[in-house]
Write a structure and sequence with these properties.
The complex is a heterodimer of chains A (972) and B (440). Helices cover 49% and strands 11% of the residues of chain A. Chain A contains 42 helices and 15 strands. In chain A, strands 1-2-3-6-5 form a five-stranded antiparallel β-sheet, with no helix packed on it. In chain A, helix 17 packs antiparallel against helix 18 and helix 30 packs across helix 31. The two termini of chain A are 63 Å apart. Chain B has 440 residues and is an alpha+beta fold. In chain B, strand 1 and strand 2 form a beta hairpin. The relative contact order of chain B is 0.11. The chains are: A alpha+beta (972), B alpha+beta (440). Chains A and B meet through helix 3, helix 5, helix 8, helix 10 and helix 13 of A and strand 4, helix 2, helix 4, strand 7 and strand 9 of B.
Chain lengths: 972, 440
């Protein structure tokens, strides 16, 4: 009943709305609004409410406007009824009514209404009253959001630009805000071209406008590049007072301007030092605000201390964690404490960290223990104390503390080899309690690395081996490596162990990484133990504090984005902001003397390319050919490799005939690619002359059956000219497969495939209704994925899907969605909704969908890049049963945006040098070798991301590459 | 800019939503609920969340979440500040910021949200301006409204909106002209087990309550302004005057406002008003432990410490406490493992003491986490930093106002670290025996 009092039934409201009494009308509208806000559908009252609009009572008018804004979209024809009143109100003598009318009209997102909005808006932009002008400025942004073309055609953008010079600071601030918002969807429009005159106007308005206006203006100022250091200083001087503002967003925006512009000041300038001193107190003050503000402040301070550690070097204590800080504040504080740790304050920091390590919150305790390890790595003088602190913590026997401590001690060993190994005994005592993969992997690494000092290393490792298949990949990989290390160090006692692990890794595992590593070790050990020793036991580069730091160019960009979402996520805006197709990369301007001009970074890099020595492909190719020969032809040296030490003697015996078996292996592998061989291929039959010493054979050459099973979608199809599916571009187009079986989705079956057509990636689907009832309201959404695939529009299924009906739908995809690395890389998780439920499935897209049309690299650039890419990033594999000649293959590949840059022929073998570019800007280079008469091609792939990340392409054995690339991006 | 706002209570109901651009389905909040599930406490939900198409920026006030949805790159602090401002406005209008009050005043809430933001851009956020546009509901006024039929929405242009002093409305009239200032200081400190200050700083704020007729121009000066090296001001304060003369010169908003915040940094020595002698120990064997706490005055500047309260977060294994307090009462909140000892006034002649036995869960491993001890206190008539106002002058108006300054010092995040000791059972036997006899 109370509900009925608050939200009376529609018919009652209708009667009250049509009452003659003003007061009753108003109360009725209020009740309508109250019902609307709790989600009741009161749209049926539209005509009655709109009838109340023509009133001189401002409150009633505002209430009607609230209603209109809510329902106009669903009742556009009714909304037209309101237009006349709006237009009339825009002429009202009271500026408040004029502003209110234009403001509300802009909020009604109905096309027919927006047409009528143009004239009133034009007048309001030039209204004599600044309150109306500032409201109209925002209205331009609204209109732009609804109909950008209209705004441009009507010339509103120019009027808006003029408002930057308005005499009223609030108008200026709103004009800047509106232009900034519009500019975000118009990256190259040059809407806010800043020159010294406009800058001066902005700085004047900055002093007088509201706090929010100050934020807009400061953010806009941050995009300006001063002509010289004098201008830079004068802007800084006028911005500095904002650091004392009570609004933290004003403070942080001011910090951004100062951090950016101070880069241009000479470091020996007195003012530079003054400015540095002025920056510390406001940053500290931000930390006494509400926790949410603190969090954002801390994320930004994290960037600031990396760029300019001197600003906060004396303020360590403010980052000490308080008991009642929320966990997200605690974790950020901890991170900054480490960044600020130095020899001077390390004792205090360590004492704090030790306290934290005994707190309640598990995440926090873990991070505190890690922090102790990072301190050891950062401040050399403290390493010993850190290690002893960690040992104390291990003594507590608290399970997760022990595990974290072991993980960080491994890092300390890598930073200071041969210094703290005395603690290994203590670590080994805790072996049994380790149940987290990372800790187990760390412990195994330690055992393998120091195998010669641990008497029972073999027993320890063997104990892990028992449950090998239940371990996670990182533990398996580490165990494999550790046992190989152990074998190379103590070959006599451990051959059985190493053999066991190699066979576990190569024969019984489905994990390509593990298998590859297993094969590599196996081959290494059986061919050249000396090399194996050099490779496996090579001196490792020391790790340093820098691994934790943000990469400098990214840091520079992020400094220009202080206070933004980018600064919270520590990612460049281009990486995640939706619809920011053209986000310009901001850079910190260099230190300029007066009158010096900035050298464009583009010129710089272009010059770098042209200066590179003009090499020609053949000379480059020879080298590559030689590299390949290692694998393709039998080694030229015959006889056993040189024996250098007693230890290798032992190893050699075990590996007898290693070289030969390698040769044998090669033949065998090739054969197995050509035709599936029975899996019972005996290792003893391997290759000519391959005799095994002590039962230690070459890796079994036969792949698990699944390897040879024809994979229907793949490069094979790419080459298959006759491949049935007709397509306009002749591009590779895999057939549809069932993604979501009807059983799992209450009768909805979805099969689909991915196609690239005229530069647009499309997801083509067949939706079949196998249920008994009609399906409607389809929608689709993707989880974050490796390449930012997102639907570029809604799922166009307009008609309901009746039982047993099937419908085809094509969904255009964009690649500007949020990015998250998936496993496997080309995995896409999809949620499909209909009137029945939401269903989830995942599918894999062929990587070739992501090859963009402009993936043809300049010849010169190709050469330079090919040379630049380290061999680590290279991988090789074969494509079987392809009967095209090289030209046909090249054409075929070109239709999938794999471009041939150059071709040469050596000894009847055609070598195609190719490039392709992924949608996220990563280039991949390839060499394709085609031997006439041999249906098997060899391909070498290389890649590196040119700006910030390195991409390692790792092929999964011999499966066709287009579907089964396992691209692993290690973002550095 | 800010696209939408959702108000959500602790049990996860969305009870109000407002969209300033197109309507966004409330299913976007699912990402927030997911994060809330993961968090131990409601306060621990991260304030910025990324979803496939939007960002969710949340503040937690009282028992409510103010969740805003943004679609483009917007400074998160801007959004967070704004959300807190919305909560402040509700508080200001309705006396509290709770779900029931918001639901009762839902139309006013909508009117306010509509005035505060236009297309996601802040429009009117100053309390003075808003009150001219939408009058706060009072029982008296609703009676008057019904009698006279007058509206509670202003129909003139709010005067503050465009003047260079947007925070003050014109034509303010009072019969009693008064200006009061409260200097409130909070001590944030962490002290280690031996009582040494690990970290201490003072967060100060000057809250003003000014009801003056016309356009008064005030100047507030300090005896020792040099203490203030890190300050943030209300927009009304003339920054240039502060830089050159170290006085606060301003035309005040009408009513209550925060004039300035300041921060006396950790580099100046901070007076610590009380000391704590504490010992908490757990026996190596046997499911119990011992607690003994005494509090005494340290640097109180000659004033009395009042409203003294001790809160101890106990290790998880502590089941109950059997203690004796020489002053005040204690309670042990078992679910949260918090021991609260409410002492009241601190008498330097007879120091309050709390001691007795803690019983632990039988068979539980000995506590891993150290207890932490937090202090609450209040000292009237003194700002612990030593800050003093020397005088307040008024220009621009002829009348003589009542003036007053009050000082108070409180504990902010004031924390003593404890280290639980472990003793062999036998040594403590006599202690237990002692307690056995004293208790019965």
């Amino acid at each position: 009943t109370t509900d009925n009092q608050n939200h009376p039934p529609i018919f009652e409201l209708k009667a009250e709305l049509n009452s003659d009494k003003k007061e009753k009308k108003k109360e009725a509208v209020k009740k309508v609004i109250a019902s609307m806000t709790v989600g009741k559908d009161v749209s049926a009252l539209f005509p009655d409410v709109v009838n109340c609009m023509q009133t001189d009572n401002l409150e009633l008018k505002k209430l009607v406007y609230l209603y209109l804004m809510n329902y106009a979209k669903s009742q556009p024809d009714m909304a037209i009824m309101a237009v006349n009143t709006f237009v009339k109100d825009c002429e009202d003598p009271n500026p408040l009514i004029r502003a209110l009318a234009v403001r509300t009209m802009g909020c009604i997102r109905v096309d027919k209404i927006t047409e009528y909005l143009c004239e009133p808006l034009r007048k309001c932009l030039k209204d004599e009253d600044p309150y109306v002008r500032k409201t109209a400025a925002v209205c331009v942004a609204k209109l732009h959001d609804i109909n950008a073309q209209l705004v441009e055609d009507q010339g509103f953008l120019d009027t808006l630009k003029d408002l930057i010079s308005d005499s009223n600071p609030m108008v200026v601030a709103n004009a800047v805000a509106a232009l900034s918002e519009i500019a975000e969807s118009h990256p190259n429009s040059n809407l806010l071209d800043l020159n010294p005159q406009t800058i001066n106007k902005l700085l004047t308005a900055l002093n007088e406008c509201t706090e929010w206006g100050q934020i807009f203006i400061l953010d806009c100022l941050a995009n300006y590049t001063p002509r010289d250091d004098r201008e830079s200083q004068s802007i800084c001087e006028r911005v500095t007072p904002r650091l004392s503002h009570a609004n933290s967003a004003v403070v942080l925006s001011a910090v951004k301007v100062l951090m950016k512009f101070m880069e241009m000041l000479p470091k020996d300038l007195d003012y530079y030092g003054t400015l540095l001193k002025k920056l510390a107190p406001p940053l500290v003050t931000l930390l006494s605000a509400e926790p949410e503000l603190q969090y954002v402040a801390l994320r930004n301070i994290n960037l600031i201390v990396q760029r300019r550690p001197e600003i906060l070097k004396h303020e360590m204590k403010v980052f000490f964690v308080k008991y009642n800080d929320p966990i997200y504040v605690k974790l950020e504080k901890l991170d900054i404490m480490i960044r600020l740790a130095s020899q001077a304050n390390i004792a205090q920091v360590l004492a704090e960290l030790k306290e934290y390590a005994t707190e309640v919150d598990v995440d926090f305790v873990r991070k505190a223990v890690r922090a102790i390890g990072r301190c050891a790595i950062k401040v050399e003088q403290s390493a010993e104390r850190c290690v002893s602190t960690l040992l104390d913590l291990i003594q507590t026997k608290v399970n997760y503390v022990v595990q974290e401590a072991i993980v960080v001690i491994k890092d300390i060993f890598r930073k200071y080899p041969n210094k703290y190994e005395s603690v290994i005994a203590t670590l080994c005592e805790n072996l049994d309690s380790l149940d987290e993969p990372e800790a187990r992997a760390a412990m195994i690494w330690i055992v393998g690395e120091y195998a010669e000092r641990i008497d029972n290393a073999d027993e320890l490792l063997e104990s892990f081996l028992e449950g090998f298949h239940d371990e996670s990949t990182q533990v398996q990989l580490q165990l494999l490596t550790a046992i190989v290390k152990l074998f190379l160090k103590k070959p006599t006692e451990t051959q059985e162990l190493v053999q066991q692990v190699l066979s576990l890794a190569t024969q019984d595992s489905d994990n390509p990484d593990l298998r590859d590593r297993g094969y590599i070790y196996w081959r290494l050990l059986s061919t050249d133990p000396v090399a194996a020793k050099e490779v496996v036991l090579a001196e490792k580069p020391l790790i340093s504090e820098e691994t934790d730091l943000i990469e400098p160019t990214l840091l520079e960009e992020l400094i220009c984005h202080i206070g933004t979402l980018a600064s919270v996520y520590h990612k460049p805006p281009s990486a995640f902001v939706e619809g920011s197709r053209g986000v310009q990369h901001k850079r910190i301007p260099g230190n300029l003397g007066s009158g010096e001009s900035v050298e464009s970074p583009d010129n710089g890099s272009a010059a770098g390319v042209t200066e590179a020595p003009p090499a020609v492909i053949p000379s480059q190719g020879d080298l590559l050919g030689d590299l390949l020969n290692l694998d393709l032809t039998p080694p030229t040296t015959t006889g056993p490799p040189p024996i250098s030490s007693g230890m290798q003697m032992g190893a050699m015996d075990l590996l007898g005939g290693g070289l030969d078996s390698l040769v044998g292996l090669r033949h065998n592998t090739e054969r197995s690619f050509r035709s599936p061989s029975p899996p019972d291929y005996s290792p003893t039959e391997v290759g000519p002359g391959g005799h095994m010493g002590a039962g230690f054979g070459a890796p079994p050459a036969v792949m698990p059956a699944s390897f040879n099973a024809p994979v229907s979608v793949g490069l094979d199809d790419l080459f298959d000219l006759g491949g049935g599916v007709g397509m306009p571009m002749g591009a590779f187009n895999p057939p549809k497969t069932v993604w979501l079986p009807a059983m799992k989705a209450k009768g909805l079956e979805i099969s689909g495939t991915f196609v690239r057509r005229a530069g647009v990636i499309q997801m083509e689907m067949n939706l079949t209704n196998k249920a008994m009832s009609v399906m409607t309201d389809f929608a689709i959404q993707f989880n974050r994925n490796s390449f930012g695939l997102a639907s570029a529009g809604p799922l166009q299924i307009l008609t309901p899907l009746s039982p047993n009906q099937s419908i085809e739908a094509a969904l255009p995809l964009s690649t500007v969605g949020p990015v998250m690395k998936m496993e496997p890389l080309n995995n896409l998780q999809v949620a499909v909704k209909n009137n029945i439920d939401v269903f989830y499935f995942s599918c894999q897209y062929p990587i070739s969908m992501l090859f963009v049309e402009d993936g043809k690299m300049e010849r010169q650039v190709f050469l330079a890049t090919w040379k630049d890419i380290p061999n680590d990033n290279e991988s090789q594999f074969q494509i079987k049963d392809c009967h095209l000649n090289s030209d046909a293959a090249s054409n075929k590949l070109q239709s999938s945006n794999i471009f041939t840059i150059a071709k040469r022929t050596v000894e009847g073998q055609d070598m195609l040098y190719q490039s392709m570019k992924l949608t996220n800007g990563i280039w991949v280079l390839a060499e394709l070798r085609v031997q006439a008469g041999n249906p098997n091609y060899t391909t070498i792939l290389k890649s590196k991301q040119r700006i910030t990340s390195l991409i390692i392409i790792h092929t999964v054995s011999e499966r066709p590459f287009c579907t089964n690339w396992n691209l692993i991006c290690y973002i550095l | 800019m800010i696209h939408s706002l959702f108000l959500i209570n602790h049990s996860g109901d969305i009870f109000l939503e407002k969209h300033w651009k197109s309507v966004i389905s409330h299913s976007v909040c699912d990402y927030f609920f997911e994060a809330k599930e993961k968090a131990v406490d409601p306060e621990d939900v991260p304030p910025v969340l990324q979803t496939p198409h939007h960002y969710l920026i949340t503040v937690h006030r009282g028992k409510l979440f103010f969740l805003s949805v943004v679609q483009t790159e917007v400074p998160p602090l801007f959004v967070i500040e704004f959300l807190h401002r919305v909560a402040d406005t509700f508080q200001d209008y309705f006396g509290e910021c709770s779900e029931s009050v918001i639901k009762d005043n839902v139309v006013t809430v909508y009117e306010l949200l509509e005035e505060m933001l236009d297309n996601g851009f802040p429009l009117a956020t100053e309390s003075n301006v808003l009150k001219e546009l939408i009058r706060p509901p009072t029982i008296l006024r609703s009676v008057v409204n019904t009698l006279t039929g007058s509206s509670n929405v202003g129909d003139t242009l709010p005067t503050g909106q465009l003047s260079t002093i947007p925070w003050r409305r014109a034509d303010v009239k009072y019969t009693n002209n008064e200006a009061y200032f409260d200097v409130i200081e909070e001590i944030d400190a962490i002290l280690d087990k031996s009582g040494t200050t690990v970290f201490a700083e003072i967060q100060g704020v000057i809250e003003a309550s000014v009801r003056l007729t016309g356009m008064p121009d005030l100047t507030l000066s300090f005896m020792n302004p040099r203490l203030l090296d890190d300050v943030s001001f209300h927009p009304c304060v003339r920054f240039k005057r502060w830089e050159s003369e170290r006085t606060l010169s301003f035309i005040p908003p009408d009513g209550n406002f925060t004039l300035m915040n300041y921060h006396v940094s950790s580099q100046n020595p901070v007076a610590i008003p009380v000391y704590v002698k504490q010992s908490i120990s757990f026996f190596e064997s046997g499911p119990c432990g011992r607690l003994d706490i005494t509090i005494g005055p340290k640097q109180t500047m000659g004033k009395t410490v009042e409203a003294l309260m001790v809160k101890i977060h106990m290790p998880k294994a502590v089941l109950s406490a059997n203690l004796t307090a020489t002053q005040g009462n204690y309670t042990y909140d078992l679910p949260n493992k918090v021991l609260v000892w409410d002492i009241g006034k601190l008498n330097p002649q007879k120091l309050p003491n709390l001691k007795g036995i803690l019983s632990l869960q039988a068979g539980a491993p000995k506590p891993e986490d150290n207890p932490s001890l937090n202090i609450d206190l209040r000292i009237q008539q003194v700002a612990i930093s030593g800050l003093k106002v020397s005088r307040l002058e008024m220009f621009g108006e002829k009348y003589k106002p009542f003036k007053g300054v009050k000082y108070v010092t409180k504990a902010g995040k004031f924390q003593f670290k404890c280290a639980a000791l472990y003793e062999p059972f036998l040594l403590s036997f006599w202690t237990i025996l002692f307690f056995y006899f004293t208790t019965f």
